[in-house]
Amino acid sequence: AQTVTQSQPEMSVQEAETVTLSCTYDTSESDYYLFWYKQPPSRQMILVIRQEAYKQQNATENRFSVNFQKAAKSFSLKISDSQLGDAAMYFCAYRWAAPVYNQGGKLIFGQGTELSVKP
Amino acid sequence: ETGVTQTPRHLVMGMTNKKSLKCEQHLGHNAMYWYKQSAKKPLELMFVYSLEERVENNSVPSRFSPECPNSSHLFLHLHTLQPEDSALYLCASSQDGSGSSTDTQYFGPGTRLTVL
Q1: Which of A33, A49, B62, B100 lies 20 to 30 A from A107 at CA?
Q2: pLDDT bucket at B61, cuts 50 / 70 / 90
Q3: Do residue A104 and residue B100 have CB atoms under 8 angstroms apart?
Q4: Quick check: B48 and A106 CB within 8 A?
Q5: Handedness of CA B32, B37, B43, B44 (dihedral sign)
Q6: Using an 8 Å Cβ cutoff, are B62 and B76 in contact?
Q7: Which residues, in sequence order, are CB contacts of B99 under 8 Å at separation 6+?
């Protein structure tokens, strides 16, 4: 079965510095999608970045980038120039790629990493 | 704002009560989801609807009953819940639930449920 593991329950970063959150996953599939979601204290789950497994190029969204290592099954999130508003719980998630019957839309989440940002 | 709203935001109920959670999406999506988020545990998928038909039920107890009257609305009917059902219930929607490259899930703000 597919699993997602986030080994860092808590992380801390100084404002304006860079931090990397780790995520590993286990799958026998060759095609899938990976996501990072952010959940601030408001509890709204917000999509930060996504990566298609068939793409070698690492995804980037402004200050957020990933280091996708398919062979190692590793998918880390790097936050550059950290801001106070980045403080939140971050979840890594895995999803099958279509057309796997009855599993296409299902997300498998990790346990989350709580990121605090120090001013 | 992600285009997915949930009401109520907070709910306290006794074990003998019957209540319903509501989710509405304004994104033109055709798939909707219910997740349960308990403290210190990963999000758990409960139900998936695609084009108003249930396509997945992750062995959820029958005291949770979903309803999807149209592609914009999703309900979770609750009855005779247990204290361990206290959690944050999140709704999400996506384009069609197919898992294709454009089928990204967008979440609502959640309903914080407390069962006494």
Answers
A1: B62
A2: very high
A3: yes
A4: yes
A5: negative
A6: no
A7: A33, A95, A96, A97, A98, A99, A100, A103, A104, A105, A106
